[in-house]
Amino acid sequence: MTKQKTPKPGKNSTGPKILHSTGAQITMGIGAAVLLWFCCRIALPTKKSSPPGQNIAPVKDNTPQTQASTVAFKKTKVASNPAPGKPPDEMVWIPGGTFSIGCLDPRGIPHGGDKPMTDARPIHSVTVDGFWIDTTEVTNQQFSKFVEATNYVTIAEIPPRPEDFPGAPPENLVAGSIVFTPPDQPVPLSNHLQWWAYVPGANWRHPLGPESTIIDKLDYPVVHIAFEDAVAYADWAGKRLPTEAEWEFASRGGLTGNMYPWGEEFCPNGKWMANTWQGQFPVQNTAEDGFVGIAPVRQYSPNAYGLFDVSGNVWEWCADWYRPDTYQKQRNDELPSVNPSGPDTSFDPQEPGIAKRIQRGGSFLCTAQYCSRYILGTRGKGEVSSGCNHVGFRCVQDTQ
Ligand SMILES: [Ca+2]
Ligand SMILES: [Ca+2]
Question: How many angstroms does the Cα of residue 163 sit away from the middle of ligand 2?
Answer without folding.
Answer: 36
